[in-house]
Design brief:
With about 60 residues, this protein is of the alpha+beta class. Helix content is about 20%, strand content about 30%. It has one helix and four strands. Strands 1-4-3-2 form a four-stranded mixed beta sheet, with helices on one face. Strand 3 and strand 4 form a beta hairpin.
């Protein structure tokens, strides 16, 4: 089973980052986290994914 590294990037304006990525590269949005979502631990998150790495954008 392959392992795909994951990176987390913290931002102060997750909605702006999401809008830019969704407009320019919608195919990169992770199917399980493809919109800004408030997680149980309180962070707002969305993710992108390609064949090599997953990147989670986060705002506290």
């Amino acid at each position: 089973k392959e392992h795909y590294p994951e990176l987390r990037l913290v931002t102060k304006n997750i909605e702006e980052v999401f809008t830019k990525i969704a407009k320019s590269h919608p195919q990169l949005l992770h199917p399980n986290l493809n919109k800004v979502t408030i997680r149980p631990w309180g962070a707002k998150e969305f993710a992108i994914l390609d064949k090599q790495v997953g990147i989670r954008f986060q705002q506290w």
